[in-house]
Automatic annotation (TrEMBL):
InterPro entries to which the protein is assigned, alphabetical: LeuE-type (IPR001123)
Keyword Transmembrane helix among record annotations: yes
Taxonomic placement: Bacteria, Bacillati, Actinomycetota, Actinomycetes, Catenulisporales
Locations listed in the record: Cell membrane
Gene Ontology cellular-component annotations: plasma membrane
Key words, A-Z: Cell membrane, Membrane, Transmembrane, Transmembrane helix
Organism, scientific name: Catenulispora acidiphila (strain DSM 44928 / JCM 14897 / NBRC 102108 / NRRL B-24433 / ID139908)
Membrane-spanning intervals of the chain: 12-34, 46-71, 83-101, 167-185
Membrane topology field: Multi-pass membrane protein
PANTHER family the UniProt entry points to: ARGININE EXPORTER PROTEIN ARGO, ARGININE EXPORTER PROTEIN ARGO-RELATED
Protein's recorded name: Lysine exporter protein (LYSE/YGGA)
The keyword Membrane is assigned to this record: yes
Domain of life of the source: Bacteria
Predominant cellular place of this UniProt entry's protein: membrane
Length: 213
């Protein structure tokens, strides 16, 4: 049953407990942000993190207005998004693996700062927006935290905002912690190894997403 008599504050706090547990579970978003912190630097890592949280806000609005219901109800729509997301992950992961094999620096690590930040943001946003599991999570849990007489869109954005706030705190801990070790990770050989590992993980996520029915 939903929060029929619960206050907005109670709903937000209750959702924060659930979303907090989901946030700290290692996943695709964490891999992208952590790799950015270790290889590309703190600025681009925060750019990727903000991209991820922007994607979550979009999913939150979509879930609250029923777009995610369509994805859940329509097998064709869900499959289409799943295939696109899988291809994106495969493309990004194989690019990292290929760059590591050739001894190159992947994903624009030698770009000027503004270009690098924009690309980092788009990389984070694309990773989140093309992952239908985010929409499926929101559409599954949001009804439990929707008080009556409250705009569904506003409440959906509020719930996604809570999730984003927790994610940014978690990402900040990872980024600042990784920054201390970046001198070692800045070595070209270590960068290549990290790209190879991260790329392989992304390819694995892409294959898993493509094969999941």
């Amino acid at each position: 049953m939903g929060c029929m008599d619960g206050s907005v504050l109670h709903a937000l706090v209750s959702f924060a407990l659930v979303a907090g547990l989901v946030t700290v579970i290692p996943g695709l978003d964490t891999a992208v942000v952590l790799r950015s912190a270790l290889v590309l630097g703190r600025g681009q890592a925060f750019g990727a993190a903000f991209g991820v949280t922007f994607g979550a806000l979009v999913w939150g609005a979509a879930a609250a207005t029923g777009v995610s219901v369509l994805l859940t109800a329509s097998h064709a729509a869900y499959t289409g998004l799943r295939v696109v997301g899988a291809l994106y992950l495969l493309w990004m992961g194989m690019g990292m693996v290929r760059a590591a094999w050739r001894g190159e620096l992947s994903q624009g690590s030698e770009q000027v700062p503004d270009t690098g930040l924009v690309r980092a943001f788009l990389r984070g946003a694309g990773t989140n927006l093309l992952n239908p599991k985010v929409g499926a999570f929101y559409i599954a849990v949001f009804p439990q935290f929707m008080p009556v007489h409250v705009s569904h869109l506003a409440m959906g954005l509020g719930l996604a905002g809570v999730h984003d706030l927790e994610a940014m705190v978690w990402f900040s801990v990872l980024i600042l912690g990784a920054h201390r070790a970046r001198a070692w990770f800045a070595k070209r050989r270590v960068k290549r190894a990290l790209d190879a590992v991260t790329g392989t993980v992304l390819v694995g996520f892409g294959v898993e997403l493509a094969l999941r029915g």
